[in-house]
Amino acid sequence: MHGSPVPGLGDAIFLARNRGTQRTETMLLWLTLTTLWSTVCWADPMYGNAKGWYFSTPPEDENVITGIRVFVSPIGIFRSIQVRSGSTWSEKYGISGGHSQEFILWPGEHITGMYGSHKIYMRYLVVYTNFGRWATFGKEDGQSFVVYPDQFGKVLTGVFGQYQALGITGIGFKWDYPLESSTVTTTK
Protein backbone atom coordinates (compact mmCIF):
# COMPACT_ATOMS: atom_id res chain seq x y z
CA MET A 1 0.00 0.00 0.00
CA HIS A 2 1.24 3.49 -0.85
CA GLY A 3 -0.62 5.66 1.65
CA SER A 4 -4.07 5.86 0.06
CA PRO A 5 -7.16 5.66 2.29
CA VAL A 6 -8.92 3.69 -0.46
CA PRO A 7 -7.59 0.13 -0.78
CA GLY A 8 -5.85 -0.35 -4.15
CA LEU A 9 -6.08 3.35 -5.10
CA GLY A 10 -2.55 4.03 -3.90
CA ASP A 11 -1.26 1.23 -6.10
CA ALA A 12 -3.18 2.64 -9.09
CA ILE A 13 -1.78 6.14 -8.48
CA PHE A 14 1.73 4.70 -8.06
CA LEU A 15 1.41 2.77 -11.39
CA ALA A 16 -0.05 5.79 -13.18
CA ARG A 17 2.82 7.95 -11.96
CA ASN A 18 5.31 5.32 -13.14
CA ARG A 19 3.65 5.15 -16.57
CA GLY A 20 3.71 8.94 -16.73
CA THR A 21 7.39 8.88 -15.77
CA GLN A 22 8.08 6.31 -18.47
CA ARG A 23 6.27 8.47 -21.02
CA THR A 24 8.21 11.50 -19.86
CA GLU A 25 11.50 9.61 -20.07
CA THR A 26 10.57 8.28 -23.51
CA MET A 27 9.65 11.79 -24.67
CA LEU A 28 12.93 13.21 -23.30
CA LEU A 29 14.91 10.46 -25.04
CA TRP A 30 13.08 11.16 -28.31
CA LEU A 31 13.68 14.91 -27.93
CA THR A 32 17.38 14.35 -27.20
CA LEU A 33 17.84 12.08 -30.21
CA THR A 34 15.93 14.47 -32.47
CA THR A 35 18.11 17.36 -31.35
CA LEU A 36 21.31 15.38 -31.83
CA TRP A 37 20.34 14.52 -35.41
CA SER A 38 19.25 18.06 -36.28
CA THR A 39 21.46 20.69 -37.92
CA VAL A 40 21.44 22.63 -34.64
CA CYS A 41 23.69 19.97 -33.14
CA TRP A 42 26.26 19.67 -35.92
CA ALA A 43 29.70 19.13 -34.48
CA ASP A 44 31.33 21.81 -36.63
CA PRO A 45 32.53 24.83 -34.64
CA MET A 46 31.06 28.31 -34.95
CA TYR A 47 33.35 31.35 -34.93
CA GLY A 48 32.36 34.64 -33.29
CA ASN A 49 29.98 35.43 -30.44
CA ALA A 50 27.24 33.22 -31.92
CA LYS A 51 24.18 34.83 -30.36
CA GLY A 52 20.73 35.39 -31.80
CA TRP A 53 18.73 33.64 -34.49
CA TYR A 54 20.17 30.54 -36.14
CA PHE A 55 20.59 30.08 -39.91
CA SER A 56 21.89 27.26 -42.08
CA THR A 57 22.09 26.52 -45.78
CA PRO A 58 19.62 23.73 -46.61
CA PRO A 59 21.07 20.21 -46.92
CA GLU A 60 19.88 19.91 -50.53
CA ASP A 61 22.11 22.88 -51.45
CA GLU A 62 25.19 21.37 -49.83
CA ASN A 63 28.13 20.19 -51.89
CA VAL A 64 27.51 22.47 -54.88
CA ILE A 65 28.67 25.92 -53.73
CA THR A 66 29.65 28.02 -56.74
CA GLY A 67 29.86 31.45 -55.13
CA ILE A 68 29.62 33.48 -51.96
CA ARG A 69 28.20 36.95 -51.36
CA VAL A 70 28.57 39.01 -48.18
CA PHE A 71 26.69 42.22 -47.31
CA VAL A 72 28.77 44.62 -45.18
CA SER A 73 27.44 47.66 -43.29
CA PRO A 74 29.10 51.12 -43.54
CA ILE A 75 30.73 50.47 -40.14
CA GLY A 76 32.18 47.13 -41.26
CA ILE A 77 29.72 44.62 -39.75
CA PHE A 78 28.63 41.61 -41.81
CA ARG A 79 24.87 42.12 -42.24
CA SER A 80 24.11 38.93 -44.18
CA ILE A 81 25.58 36.19 -46.35
CA GLN A 82 24.42 34.24 -49.39
CA VAL A 83 25.84 31.18 -51.12
CA ARG A 84 25.33 30.22 -54.73
CA SER A 85 24.49 26.68 -55.89
CA GLY A 86 24.80 26.25 -59.63
CA SER A 87 23.58 29.61 -60.92
CA THR A 88 21.03 30.24 -58.14
CA TRP A 89 21.68 32.35 -55.05
CA SER A 90 20.31 31.20 -51.69
CA GLU A 91 18.17 33.40 -49.51
CA LYS A 92 20.02 36.07 -47.53
CA TYR A 93 21.02 34.74 -44.10
CA GLY A 94 21.12 37.61 -41.62
CA ILE A 95 19.50 41.02 -41.93
CA SER A 96 18.91 43.34 -44.87
CA GLY A 97 21.16 46.19 -45.87
CA GLY A 98 24.83 46.71 -46.52
CA HIS A 99 27.06 46.83 -49.57
CA SER A 100 27.42 43.48 -51.36
CA GLN A 101 30.74 41.85 -52.23
CA GLU A 102 30.74 38.57 -54.14
CA PHE A 103 33.11 35.89 -55.34
CA ILE A 104 32.08 33.51 -58.14
CA LEU A 105 33.95 30.24 -58.46
CA TRP A 106 35.22 28.89 -61.76
CA PRO A 107 34.04 25.48 -63.03
CA GLY A 108 35.75 22.77 -60.95
CA GLU A 109 36.86 25.30 -58.32
CA HIS A 110 36.03 24.74 -54.65
CA ILE A 111 36.47 26.67 -51.41
CA THR A 112 39.15 24.93 -49.33
CA GLY A 113 39.88 27.32 -46.48
CA MET A 114 38.79 30.44 -44.61
CA TYR A 115 40.44 33.14 -42.55
CA GLY A 116 38.35 35.69 -40.71
CA SER A 117 37.92 38.00 -37.75
CA HIS A 118 35.14 39.15 -35.45
CA LYS A 119 34.35 41.38 -32.53
CA ILE A 120 30.71 41.30 -31.38
CA TYR A 121 29.80 40.85 -35.06
CA MET A 122 31.64 39.22 -37.98
CA ARG A 123 33.91 41.73 -39.74
CA TYR A 124 36.29 39.96 -42.10
CA LEU A 125 36.47 36.82 -44.20
CA VAL A 126 39.04 35.57 -46.71
CA VAL A 127 37.95 32.65 -48.90
CA TYR A 128 40.67 30.40 -50.39
CA THR A 129 40.14 27.96 -53.27
CA ASN A 130 41.78 24.86 -54.70
CA PHE A 131 42.80 26.96 -57.75
CA GLY A 132 44.99 29.21 -55.57
CA ARG A 133 42.56 32.12 -55.79
CA TRP A 134 41.17 34.06 -52.84
CA ALA A 135 38.64 36.80 -52.14
CA THR A 136 38.35 39.15 -49.18
CA PHE A 137 35.15 40.44 -47.58
CA GLY A 138 35.11 43.36 -45.11
CA LYS A 139 38.13 44.60 -43.18
CA GLU A 140 40.24 42.72 -40.66
CA ASP A 141 39.33 43.76 -37.11
CA GLY A 142 39.10 41.84 -33.85
CA GLN A 143 39.83 38.24 -32.94
CA SER A 144 40.94 36.11 -35.89
CA PHE A 145 40.29 32.48 -36.83
CA VAL A 146 41.50 30.04 -39.48
CA VAL A 147 39.26 27.25 -40.79
CA TYR A 148 39.98 24.42 -43.16
CA PRO A 149 38.65 20.87 -43.65
CA ASP A 150 39.76 18.10 -41.33
CA GLN A 151 40.74 15.86 -44.27
CA PHE A 152 42.51 16.49 -47.56
CA GLY A 153 40.12 16.71 -50.50
CA LYS A 154 37.14 18.06 -48.56
CA VAL A 155 35.63 21.38 -49.64
CA LEU A 156 33.09 23.87 -48.33
CA THR A 157 29.59 22.40 -48.67
CA GLY A 158 27.51 24.52 -46.31
CA VAL A 159 27.41 27.60 -44.10
CA PHE A 160 25.60 28.12 -40.80
CA GLY A 161 25.62 30.74 -38.08
CA GLN A 162 23.67 33.18 -35.96
CA TYR A 163 22.62 36.82 -36.28
CA GLN A 164 21.09 39.62 -34.22
CA ALA A 165 19.65 43.07 -34.91
CA LEU A 166 22.83 44.54 -36.50
CA GLY A 167 24.22 41.52 -38.33
CA ILE A 168 25.95 38.15 -38.20
CA THR A 169 27.35 37.28 -34.75
CA GLY A 170 28.81 33.87 -35.57
CA ILE A 171 29.56 31.69 -38.58
CA GLY A 172 30.48 28.06 -39.16
CA PHE A 173 31.35 25.96 -42.16
CA LYS A 174 30.39 22.44 -43.32
CA TRP A 175 33.09 20.48 -45.16
CA ASP A 176 32.69 17.35 -47.26
CA TYR A 177 34.06 15.71 -50.39
CA PRO A 178 32.86 17.36 -53.62
CA LEU A 179 30.29 15.61 -55.75
CA GLU A 180 31.73 13.93 -58.80
CA SER A 181 30.63 15.81 -61.88
CA SER A 182 28.69 13.60 -64.20
CA THR A 183 30.23 13.78 -67.63
CA VAL A 184 29.19 11.82 -70.66
CA THR A 185 32.00 10.51 -72.82
CA THR A 186 31.25 9.81 -76.43
CA THR A 187 33.49 7.97 -78.83
CA LYS A 188 33.58 8.57 -82.56
Question: How would you summarize what this structure contains?
Answer:
With 188 residues, the chain is of the alpha+beta class. It contains 1 helix and 13 strands, in the order αβββββββββββββ.
What keyword list fits this structure?
alpha+beta, 1 helix, single chain, 188 residues, globular, 4-stranded antiparallel beta sheet, 13 strands
Major sheet? 5 strands, antiparallel
Q: Output the number of helix runs.
A: 1
What is the residue-averaged pLDDT? Answer: 82
Structural class: alpha+beta
CA distance, first residue to last residue? 90 Å
Count of individual beta strands: 13
Description:
15% of the residues lie in helices and 41% in strands. With 188 residues, it is α+β, with helices and mostly antiparallel strands. Strands 3, 4, 5, 6 and 7 form a five-stranded antiparallel sheet that branches. Strands 1-13-12-2 form a four-stranded antiparallel sheet, with no helix packed on it. A four-stranded antiparallel sheet has the order 10-9-8-11, with no helix packed on it. The protein is globular and about 40 Å long. The model is unreliable at 12-16, 36-42 and 182-188 (pLDDT under 50).
Topology:
Elements: H1 9-37, E1 46-48, E2 53-56, E3 65-72, E4 78-85, E5 88-89, E6 93-94, E7 99-104, E8 111-118, E9 122-129, E10 134-138, E11 143-147, E12 155-163, E13 168-176
Antiparallel strand pairs: 1-13, 2-12, 3-4, 3-7, 4-5, 4-6, 8-9, 8-11, 9-10, 12-13
